[in-house]
Batch of 2 targets.
Target 1
Amino acid sequence: MPQVLLYLLAKVKKLILHLKKQKKMKEIMTVYYMEAKSAGVGGRKVAWITSGGPVEPLIAMDVIPVYPENHGAMIGASKMGVGLCETAESMGYSPDLCSYARSDIACATVNGGPIGGLPRPDMLVCCNNICGTVLKWYEVQARYFDVPLFILDTPFCHVGFAEEAKRYVRKQLDEYINFLEKVCRKKMDHDRMKEVGKLSLEGQRLWQAVLDTTANRPAPMSAFDAFYHLALIVTLRGTPVVVEYYAQLLAKMKDRVVKGIGAVPNEKYRLLWDNIPIWPRTRWLSQKFAAHDACLVADTYTSAWCGTMKYIDENNFFDSMAEAYTRIYLNIGVDEMSRIVVGMVDKYQVDGIVMHSNRSCKPYSLGQYDIQRIVEKERGIPSLMIEADMVDERSFSESQVATRIDAFMEVIKQRKS
Amino acid sequence: MLTAGIDIGSISTKAAVLADGKLLGSRVIFTGYNSEAAGKRVFEELLGELGMEAPAVRRIVSTGYGRNSVKFVDKAVTEIICHGTGAHFLNPLIRTVIDIGGQDSKAIVLDENGKVKNFAMNDKCAAGTGRFLEVMANALEADLDGFGEMSLKAERPAGISSLCTVFAESEVISLIAKGESRFNIIAGIHESIAARVSALANRVGIVPPVVMTGGVAKNAGVVKALEKKLGVPIEVSPFAQVNGAIGAAIIAAGLR
């Protein structure tokens, strides 16, 4: 290895060590992306994986997981989505295609975006529990990078979870391990896998506990804070850093509850958010609602990463994750989704629901009108539909959205007066 | 007590002045590019018409897209609440308001006290709005004010299938090229708006009696097409276009 590379590697390692001592989100994510970007130098492998995919086997195999969807959110939040979407469209991709997919596909070719592109993958892991788009998206990337692709097919659970589906998914988990062993040229350490499973579950429990603190009045944090703190349970699930981070965050939130500190200074109205955030507009939305003394106390999005703990067997994580990964929020029927939403309405005592009809995310947006109708019938609370996109700002009209939010808040105020 | 409501829409700006809950007068002007100036001008012109001075008006509420651009008002309230309040004032029995404005169409369900129970607004698209009609009137080189009358002479409304204003316009141009009658094309345009707005109204759940407000309510062809599509009679008040401004003036009277 050339001297200069060794020198750089030593430098990076030193910096990573320094940053690792800090338990702040920005530092943790910086370390994570630095490690991923220098993986090749350190002899580690990188896998790109879908946001709902089983990451634990990758962690157990010491593979660094990288999430194009998390990257998409970063692109959106840094308002770089439109440029990348336009690049993808000039490559021939339809503007109707998911904006995470468009920005990721474009980013790979230009190494653009807020972090200069994602580290090159050694393999791709695609689980279709979140949507069908990921199949073609990952096939495109597998061809582009010329790397192996593993597809985990999780049948849609219209009602319940059939025994056949369970066997089908469980069988694929073995194939997943075979795939990893082949690409990594080493055997899976099943004891290590158990450890990772335990850490994953522990991280999920803590994340749920953090989200639960917003059942208090005033809520110590809002959904907009949850959108920020979410990054770790998505990207580093199954590692100790997640457990440490959320344990600290939980303590902080509990302290705020005791002291009566709310995320919105004068919380009068409590709302529930549905769908992926409008990343380029989270700050604007947060201020808009806060100006009405409204706090978005909970959301269906961030809770999706701890929503299937009931299916996980603590002592047999590997086998039970077949069910847990198949029955996630986006892979179940509208009736069950509605039950979850009604449960959240009760738990967090919300006065209304704000739904983002997300032009990019069809599986998340389909059924929203039904859920709206069911919740209205069962709990009598109103809901607002905002038409936008998670990354592509061209689908956002500020004055239209402002009018809808103002009108919605006026209706809620009228109802509560 | 004198109160005023100013409704600054994307196409027209409206004002209404009330004296202790009685409508004294109203006025409509084009908004143009400066919504603040339009709000000021319509108010001053109406006061001039009524022979009044601005200080005589105790409270003013603004509404519409330009509601936050006028600084001399006491409060800005959205069109939803104002149209609901205005419709209830003109007829307390009304339970559903369909308002088609320049860039928004909305369906509002009211309770017996005129409070908004629920509402739905058009998605991010100009189809089914006043702007849609304007674009079509341009394509047909027809006067928008005559649209309603003309459509009633149609023998067989032309089919316009496109959901997008721009594509619908090119559909209209090709219908003209095919020699389709103007009356049939205009009736087709009205049916297309009715289809769009009735989907919105059904989503929120229509409760009769229904009233239509906003500038488009002046178009008898749209009202007829909507009645047919929804299967309920629709009332139109002579104050349809200034309904939002009237509602704003009533809300102004209630301000403390």
Target 2
Amino acid sequence: MGLRTPLYDTHVAAGARMVDFGGWDLPVNYGSQIEEHHAVRRDAGMFDVSHMCVVDLRGPRVREFLRRLLANDVAKLTQSGKALYSCMLREQGGVIDDLIVYFMDDEWFRMVVNAGTRDKDLEWIRIHAGGYQVSVEPRFDLAMIAVQGPHARQKAAQAIDPAIAARALELGAFFGLAADHWFVARTGYSGEDGWEIMLPAHEAPEFWQRFNAAGIAHCGLGARDTLRLEAGMNLYGNDMDESTSPLVSGLGWTLAWEPQDRDFIGRAALAAQQASGATHKLVGLIVEERAVLRPHQKIIVPAVGEGEVTSGTFSPTLERSIGLARVPAQTGDHCEVEIRGRLIGARVVRPPFVRNGKATIAL
Amino acid sequence: MSNVPADLRYLKSHEWARLEADGTITIGISDHAQQALGDLVFVEAPEAGRRVRAGEACAVVESVKAASDIYSPVSGEVVAGNADLGGQPELVNSDPYGAGWIMRIRPEDKTQFAAMLDARAYQAALAAETH
């Protein structure tokens, strides 16, 4: 038996197909993954993301600590509630995890890290926090529900405390707010508008039902993956890990090189890699043939070299296969992918593929 | 629980087969298999006239999640592939034992069909798989 979120019984009762996901028993779909995908693109859907780990960091030197710990710079966060996406790196530049960090006040930042990396993340954070007298508190008492889609905020607002809803509807993109034991953020992993709501674990089943009654479709991890891939968002463990740096993972934009004297962990290694020129890059792929890109398929770039698909699926919005791939840096606008013993041509594009319900790539 | 019609024969690899009145055998994938695969997006059915051997991979079903080979339970000649699946692969999900059939084969040897699992034996195989 795997780990269970507070919504496990709710999923089973709703007829979800449960699968193991990094040690957690989670719903992959409740029937049709494609219908769940479309619900988010066209209307409103929700995901149980309680397996992800909320970590509160507190102390007078917490900002200084995070400027050392993270490759993006929390000095950018000046307004309370503002969020930042960042990688957390090893000294050699490999990605320990990607995460979102919220600035709440001068002595409190909140971080959300991946489930599969939770234990090593906490260990790494604690090792480095000691020198800054920062307390590290994983919030195992919280559940998390992501409501996503063009109508998700309006529908969810009807189902929650009106006082919290009123404030939450005022949130700008990539802002969060704390209200009593709740936390609502205008963030997500789908390429659509929406909220990620952290709430006490024991309240989760009730609000899941209320959201459902408000017309928000329950969605599983299957749709979550096709949505994030269409949105061009990386998945830790597929598209980057400790053996790859952000520079070869499409995450160069998350590295804050200025100010030059900020000595974040991994900086020296990345600077050296940047100076000598990255050998590979992460790109988007689109296949026109009736074949589906899958992780680890081999890529051949004629006269240049080889690469590998890191994420691949069938895009329900574009109705063809899309993927992310690590390819030689000199790769142009075309490559070939070995799919089930055949070489299939693929177009090299710049993600995202879809944003706010619309294709962002000419088909 | 998945649906296992009593009048069909099965393989452990989740194909079903039905003996038609004209002696041909219709083949598809079981309800359990379509549930496990999830939404199908492509089906590659064999063309009529192709000769296949029992145990040969002769069709491919691909879902959002994974690709899977379909094995012929019998040797013989393909009489038809289901052309409707080209445009509507989701028929395999919505009607796996009806409109979602994949191919029809004229068998060389009727004993191969008779040797397939009956519904009870297939259900037992499914139960064993999930434990």
